[in-house]
Design brief:
Blueprint (H helix, E strand, L loop, with lengths): L6 H15 L9 H29 L7 E2 L6 E2 L3 H8 L13 E5 L11 H11 L1 H11 L4 E5 L6 H4 L1 H13 L5
Parallel strand pairs: 3-4
Antiparallel strand pairs: 1-2
Helix pairs in contact: 1-2, 2-4, 4-5
Length: 177
């Protein structure tokens, strides 16, 4: 996690603290948790401001459209379910006994003419997709990790020829039986 915090992880930690403060949660003395929550909120303010800046930069590209999830009236960013699962540590696959090809858009395409594209790209490299790719490399050292600069999130569509080339090269390097 970056030194300045991570929106998804910090959000889950705050939600957990709030949940433990609810009546009937069995907390005998809520004061220490309340103080911990106050301290967390101070740090979360900066993380929240960064998230707003990123959404502002992405909104110029149309990538930050917010839509409700199925069965709920609450808006969510696309891919938030996966981010929640990863942040909550539902399952970490660090031992993958088969060859792996992982292709990342680093940095993502933030849109031509977007005045905040450089800021959003730097943030993507430093604290979003860049660390994800590095974490994957560290967690699965046998994986072939490819970074395609300025690709969209749907990298297989925005960079079809590069993705196809990487897949062909990956398959060609697989051991033959």
């Amino acid at each position: 996690m970056p030194a300045h915090g991570d929106f998804n992880i910090d959000l889950f930690e705050l939600a957990d603290k709030i949940e433990r403060l609810k009546p009937g949660a069995g907390l005998s003395d809520p004061r220490p948790l309340m103080q911990e929550l106050l301290d967390s909120l101070k740090g979360f303010e900066g993380v929240l401001k960064e998230q707003l800046q990123e959404l502002d930069a992405l909104s110029a590209t149309g990538a930050a459209t917010v839509r409700p999830t199925a069965g709920s009236g609450e808006p969510q960013l696309p891919s938030m379910a996966a981010a929640r699962a990863i942040s909550a540590g539902e399952q970490k696959y660090t031992r993958i006994p088969v060859p792996v090809l992982a292709i990342y858009a680093v940095p993502h395409d933030m849109g031509q003419g977007n005045p905040r594209a450089a800021v959003a790209e730097a943030r993507d490299i430093a604290s979003i997709t860049g660390p994800q790719a590095m974490a994957f490399e560290a967690g699965v050292p046998s994986a072939r990790v490819v970074r395609l600069a300025h690709a969209s999130h749907d990298v297989f569509q925005s960079n079809q020829s590069e993705v196809a080339r990487e897949i062909v090269a990956f398959i060609a390097a697989l051991p033959q039986r």
